[in-house]
Amino acid sequence: MALRITTWNGALKNPFSFQPWSTQKTFEYMFDTLEADIVCFQETKIQKKDLTDDMVLVPGWDSYFTFPKLKKGYSGVAVYTRNSKCQPIRAEEGITGYLEPPSHPGKTYKSLPSSDCIGGYPELSKEDALLLDSEGRALVLDFGAFVLIGTYCPASVDPTRDAFRIAFVEALFCRVRKLVTECKRRVVVVGDLNIARDEIDAAGAKEMMREFQMVSWKETPTRDALDRLLAPNKHGVMVDLCREYFPSRLGMYTCWDVKKNKRPGNAGSRIDYILCSSDMQSWFSEANIQEGLMGSDHCPVFATLTPTVNIDGKQKNILDLVNPEGMFRSGERQTTFNVPAKPRLCMRRFPEFSQRQNIKEMFRKISSTRVAATMAPARASTPPSSVGRPAKRLKSSSSSSILRKSQIPKSQGQKTLTGFLKPAVSNRASPSSASDAPQTDIGQPRASSLDSCEQPSSKEAAISVNQSMIDPIESKEQWDLIFSKRRPPVCEAHGEECIQLVTKKPGLNHGRAFWMCRRPIGPEGESVAESGRKTEWRCNFFKWASDLQ
Asked: Which residues bind Mg(2+) (predicted)?
């Protein structure tokens, strides 16, 4: 039985508004649809207090979370493992080993005995290490056969954080390298590295190189660090699985700028990876992206481990290797095996969830026959006499409301703003003064009193109606012309209506509305749109909304 690992940025926040997850809206259904056995999420952007039963108590799954220590609603990584396929023997938070394990208060991971820690920690000062691990960017799980690192590296959007970003990437790769070379461990790294490895991995690579006057794509510190970590670099110890299976595939992107509508045109970048140490590359049978699955501005990436793997010339079932020793034999779970406790970092072991059960699971266990038997007497026990009472009250209240309505005079209609601003004519005005005033508004006759009143002759009524009658359709059309939205301009290249946006860039034009071509940016990037070339993608039409006549 194969084992699939999936990584996905952002999908933990609100994935259920997209198909196919919107049909059942549960993580259990999502994981089954992904056919995944280990799922790593990045950018969870939640705190521990925000966890719900639906997130933690997923039937058949265990979960591990790390949260930012200082900045709230930011970063965050989560790993889910399928109980029927795998169970880690150790789990750690962070990459430096300086965080405090829940099982040993007052200590650090790296200070624990070698039998209780995973190892391979980079050499850092305590101050630097705690800073790097303060944002909840990594989880490390030991499955026995390999060490899994789920990570979310900082993005390169703020130049003031470049030093932190480079330091985190260097510390992460140092931990990986030490696990492989010094600890002799197999390692799998999954997550959003926020690094596009080669020019082929970014739609706008050429224009970015021109903008920053770059000679080589890999001259940035983080790209250089990733290149040194990966084969075929002579110092490389890891393999980029997706690129190994698709070495020259174009457009294999995993992230898109959805604010600029770049996903339909596939103008994105490949920054989400599944890496494995070179000594276990043969353990994988496939790796790919799932660009058609929605849920965030990223798409899932997966890699599948073969059912059997070669260790020292012997074929071993993968399930025997990714669980506590003896739990599986030849891929079969041993019912007599005494399962050890899950790692203390497992969310099911935290006091908030250790004695709880997902309420949906509780209701699943109630048989449908029992529910039917319980509800049937309830329906039969309803007293028939209670049905008629509300009807009597309804009759009384409805009659009184009708009477009240008949006593309220109906307001007259109006055509002009002048008529709207005029003071209302007093109800005490004499009939003669009311008839002498010129009538320009459309109105229905006032509700007459229940007492007798003088009725005008038919001839006088006809004259009055002719004087006050205005075509309501014509009036509506006139008002529609005043208040209707102006039609959007049409772009010259495609002859299609444009889309209106508002600039959010700081400066003189902040907050100004403008019109531009509604088509998405193409795979060649924004430079094609700005060049004025006519293509099937976005053209260079631009007009300020205030400039439209």
From this structure: 9, 43, 192, 194, 297-298
